[in-house]
Amino acid sequence: MNNTHDSASLTRAPVVTPHSQKIFIAIAGNIGTGKTTLTRLLSERFGWNSHFESVSDNPYLADFYNDMARWSFPLQIYFLNHRFTAHQNVTHGADSAIQDRSIYEDANIFARNLFETGQMEERDYKNYLELYRVMTQFLTPPDLVIYLRKSLPRLKDQIALRGRDYEKAIPDSYLSSLNRYYDEWMGTYSLGKKLIIDSDQLDFVQRPQDFEYICSQILGALDQRDLFLEQRSFSDKSELTTAGLFPPAVKTMTAAGLQDLSR
């Protein structure tokens, strides 16, 4: 089987220009890293619109885990369509937003893993990649991709805790392969800013200090927004809200005071 994966061709430069006064963040990571929970918490904290991965309403997911080879292609097409729509809504919307898993992960991690492990036929994989390339030409990458890295034992712990029946049969080898592809993808990712967070020792749900740590890392990674705030004078916090950067609960901030966030 020939390997048709070409990482360089999967990162073609986009042609869409984003709104200059909003932030688009994507949360990336393996199954069980806590992406959905972190997306919700950050959305609540900063007032960003949230876009979640289709799980409970996904018509293919349970069947896929029972027979990956049979359902790999329709599942990946479903995810591609769902994430493309969400990404377009963010790109063409006026408000800042955060997305639970990006469209780029579909091709660079999940579809690639299915093909290279023999769970997706070469003709399906080539068809999928061509569709992906066409679709992503119409998208603007996120301002920041946050990669939650987690080891296999911790992934298994988290998957067991959430108790989804169809996830109980996920092989360790499948999760390990995804971890490896995630690390490779993040190592070469160049479409925008990236932030890698080793989350094995973090509990951002039960320990507020861990969540504050993640928030501070995000603000540090978004230094371009600091420059934006320096260049434009906001007379009060209502202007910040109108610009779509922060919610009404956030106090007026300057470039030197971004950390002054209300709970």
Question: Descriptors for this entry?
Answer:
263 residues; alpha/beta; Rossmann fold; 10 helices; 49% helix; disordered C terminus
Describe the structure.
- The chain is an alpha/beta fold and 263 residues long.
- It has one domain: 3-Layer(aba) Sandwich (Rossmann fold).
- It is 49% helix and 10% strand.
- It has ten helices and five strands, in the order βαβααβααβααβααα.
- A five-stranded parallel beta sheet has the order 2-3-1-4-5, with helices on both faces.
- Helix 3 runs antiparallel to helix 4, helix 3 packs parallel to helix 5 and helix 4 crosses helix 7.
- The radius of gyration is 19 Å and the shape is globular.
- The termini are far apart.
- The C terminus is likely disordered.
| DSSP strand content | 5-15%
> Which CATH top level class fits?
Alpha Beta
Helix segment count? 10
Radius of gyration from CA coordinates: 19 Å
Number of domains: 1
Q: Please, what is the average pLDDT?
A: 80
Number of strands: 5
Order of secondary-structure elements: EHEHHEHHEHHEHHH
Largest sheet: 5 strands, parallel
Class of secondary structure makeup: alpha/beta
Low-confidence stretches: 11-19, 225-263
CATH superfamily: P-loop containing nucleotide triphosphate hydrolases
How are strands sequenced across the largest beta sheet?
2-3-1-4-5
Architecture in CATH? 3-Layer(aba) Sandwich
Helix content: 40-55%
What is the 3D form?
globular
Q: In whole angstroms, how far apart are the ends?
A: 53 Å
CATH topology: Rossmann fold
